[in-house]
Design goal:
Length: 396
């Protein structure tokens, strides 16, 4: 018996985990590279990590996560070539010279990701899918330029546009009911088009292009703030409040990045470059990962990632340390603040990884204890003996 053609095919959890591992390695290598770039001590000082910090974090880590989630949503075997290409590309950037080899794998993985959105669009002709597909096209463009040898500072708008549109589309998809107000989706599409078209303009006409890009990012962010349900759910409790906190903080950092590009124009070095790049990739993107991880990772790994208030620790640590880096360090050209804030950022990211892994591993044991406690409570209530069934029965 075969599955219905329109029904997504399941994939083994082991395969999903195997595809996630290169993304995790890219994250660790990227954080090590961040410490090297800050000029502080790092566990690994050999190799060329500092040269590929940006692609490792954007494509090797975040790109692999995005592509894996989209492949799971598609449910077809060929879709998993996208996270495989991006994950292997990240590993190749670490181990192999020249960067064109790893860059070629990043191009391949990004191109497959674009192809994944075609059947997803055919399945659901929603604005959210179109916005995410536009982001994937920018990912291909950025990977092509990187493989061709263009310096990373020139690629920041491509990588930022990729993740801004991808995450914006995810917000549309996850909260489509809240966004279905008046012409909200039309506004999203127009803002998406502005960001998408402004990205190549930053290469062709830098002085005007960066300012147009910054203005487009600001418009898109204001649209997200206007319609995202997080403005209301931040007053609730638990996971809903935690996600809303992360979302709103991330939007705040995106406003900072858009403002820098709008006012300063083509910032490709110095404090302005550091401020805009890390406001996007740390302040915005990492906040979105923190907000969505308890929702998306269980769907990808088929393991629960239960919310716990301790998740606030890395979320709260991230923003003051990033503010120290950008406001004091970049704003006042204080190297100590850049370094202290940067180290704090690394600690915050690592802390969330440890908490997330611990939560995933701890959840089944907590489920067993809860099941046993409920069974024993029922037994006491009915006057029968407490359950001594094997653990495997309690978790069935």
């Amino acid at each position: 018996m075969t599955d219905h053609p329109s029904r997504p095919q399941s994939s083994p959890t082991a395969l999903r985990l195997a595809l996630l591992i290169p993304g995790g390695l890219a994250l660790l290598a990227g954080l090590d590279a961040a410490l090297l770039l800050l000029g502080v001590g790092a566990p690994i000082t050999a190799g060329r990590l500092a040269e590929v910090h940006g692609p490792l974090m954007v494509y090797g880590f975040v790109g692999t996560l995005v592509a894996l989630e989209r492949a799971v949503a598609l449910g077809r075997a060929w879709g998993f070539l996208a996270p495989a290409g991006l994950g292997l590309g990240g590993l190749a950037l670490i181990a192999v010279e020249p960067s064109a080899i790893g860059g070629g794998l990043l191009v391949f993985g990004s191109a497959v990701l674009v192809a994944v959105y075609v059947p997803l669009w055919q399945r659901n002709t929603a604005t959210a899918v179109l916005v995410q597909a536009a982001g994937a096209v920018l990912a291909v463009g950025g990977a092509l330029l990187f493989a061709a040898g263009l310096p990373m500072p020139w690629l920041i708008p491509w990588l930022a546009g990729y993740l801004i549109l991808t995450i914006g589309g995810e917000r549309l998809e996850l909260a489509r009911v809240a966004f279905a107000v008046g012409n909200a989706e039309t506004g999203a599409l127009l803002a998406c088009a502005a960001v998408f078209l402004a990205v190549p303009a930053t290469l062709l006409w830098p002085h005007a292009g960066y300012r147009v890009f910054g203005a487009a990012v600001l418009v898109f962010t204001v649209w997200l703030l206007r319609y995202d349900i997080a403005r209301r759910t931040v007053r609730t409790t638990g996971l809903t409040q935690f996600s809303a906190f992360c979302l709103l903080a991330g939007y705040g950092w995106l406003l900072v990045a858009g403002g820098v590009w709008l006012i300063a124009g083509p910032v490709r070095q110095g404090p302005g470059y550091d401020a805009a790049a890390h406001a996007v990739f740390l302040g915005f993107v990492m906040s979105m990962i923190l907000a969505h991880a308890p929702i998306i990772l269980p769907a990808v790994l088929r393991r629960p990632l239960p919310y716990h208030p301790i998740m606030y620790v890395p979320a709260v640590l991230l923003h003051p340390t990033l503010a120290l880096r950008i406001v004091v360090g970049d704003g006042a050209d204080a190297l100590w603040a850049v370094q202290a804030g940067g180290v704090g950022n690394v600690i915050a990211v690592l802390a969330f990884v440890v908490i997330a892994i611990g939560s995933v591993l701890w959840a089944p044991r907590r489920k067993v204890r809860t099941a046993r406690a409920a069974t024993d409570s029922d037994a006491r209530a009915t006057g029968s003996a407490p359950s001594d069934r094997p653990e495997r029965e309690a978790t069935a």
